[in-house]
Amino acid sequence: MREQQDGLAESLYWLIRLRWFAVGGVVLTTLFADKVLGLGLDYGKLYSLAAALCAYNFLFLLYLNRVRASDRPDLPVITNRLANSQIPLDLLSLAALLHFSGGPENPFAYYFFFHMIIASILLSRRASYLQAAFASVLFLLVSGLEYSGQWRHYCINGPGFCFLGEGSLPLLGSSAAFVSTLFIAVYMASSVSLKLRQKEATLRQANLQLKEKDKIKSNYVLRVSHDVKEHLAAIQACLDPVLHGLTGPLAPGQEDLLRRSYARTEKLLVFVKALLEITRLKLSKKIETGPFSLLKTAENAVRLVEERAGEKKIKLAWSVAPGVDIINGAQIYIEETIANFLANSIKYTPEGGSVELAITDEGEKVRIRVTDTGMGVPGDDLPHLFEEFFRARNARATERNGTGLGLSIAKEVAEKHKGSIWVESQEGKGASFYLILPKNAD
Amino acid sequence: MAKILIIDDDPDIVESMRIILESCRHKVKVAKNGAEGLKEAKAAKYDLIILDVMMETMSTGFEVARGLRESRENKTVPILMLTAIKESTGLDFNSEVGDKDWLPVNAYLEKPLKPNELLVKVEALLKGDAPKGK
Predict the structure, then answer these.
(1) What domains lie within chain A, and their CATH numbers?
(2) Number of A:B CB contacts under 8 A?
């Protein structure tokens, strides 16, 4: 519902933009009629009408901006009312323009149809027919009053324009054609927009159902992985004392197999933990945030991976721009994301390479960048890198271990902070991972 | 040598802890749930209580910890809590450990347990110079 009403507000902005063009059109056409064609009309009145159009368009724009900014609960009612009142006002302006520029003789009378199409897009079918009726009344009124001589007829001084003085038949003919075309236009345009609206509603419904199903799936994954994790933890707990020799010495063959079992449960545990984390993040609407030191967090993340970098003789550098320190966010997740970037880079950078973490100030935001001299990401794989369970082709080939969940967790963390995350890379030429976070995420 | 009470409803984890602790010549008593744990802690005097946070329900461990502190016998006995809380909620307990109303324990350990970590923590608590938190 909310989206639908936002849609209507968007359409109103569109209508306001169209009206600026209309104002320009009126002014240019009048200038042309005056300076080039010399049609001898009352140009002052036409310019005044253009000015009036301009003025009320400006007022509508101001009002719409204010209503939207105030976030009032009755916004849908207001936008609907605004849509319903703007179109008759436009019809009135057009009728007045017409009256001062030849009445029914003015070929631009057909511009009424644009209003019918706009009405059919913005309003209900019934309201659109009402607008068509109103337009017909205006047209017939102007024509009738001018024909009967009760209103002054501003004649266009051009050959073939004046038919008002030639009896009632041309006028009746053009009126009948005009009015029937108005209604047919509304019928056709509203049929199309009705179908579109129905389709949109169906899609919205389907999308909602999908989201619901996804939630059920996530809850299921959460339960299963939680249970699996508990058993794994117990298996490890039982293997640990045996491996530490607390139950007596082990024969070398026994110890080797037990170590292998332990290593496999460890891998499974890492995977299940990551699965739990991503699922929990996806299910939670918000994460707990608070002020924390990004400087310390970066340092912690670096400490976590230092040893591994040292083993591979990888040069690990890090810097935090002066002035960047306390920000608001979920510290644990941000530390994890930075550590994750770093660990990834170290994992896929060959011995002797370098990995650099740089945090810079971007005003309202901070930019966290990790750059490495590693194997890079193949172009085909780049758009999928943050998808769940995805692992790049060259990453799978060089490193068997990896859950394919680390970066999808990072993406979820970025989204929960209303930040952004991306990677820039060329295969064989290293990679740069970026995380942009607002300083005041709530 | 110290007398240690383990309150945990997972028999496999309990067995593993028992073996680890007994290897350091501690005497271990096991309670299979919160109620049994509270009763046991009143019946005998212990040097240390190891308490699993999640037993029958998510909050059992918290209730047991507060229950222990309410009884005269266990006002000051060191309590080591076992949790998987950081992992499951993203909460960090460090700042809350020792809070009398909320979490009246002396230290906590994240599961899965590593034998060395458990022993280091236990020895520290028994000596009375438990570092706060993890």
Answers:
(1) 2-210 (no CATH), 290-438 (3.30.565.10)
(2) 55
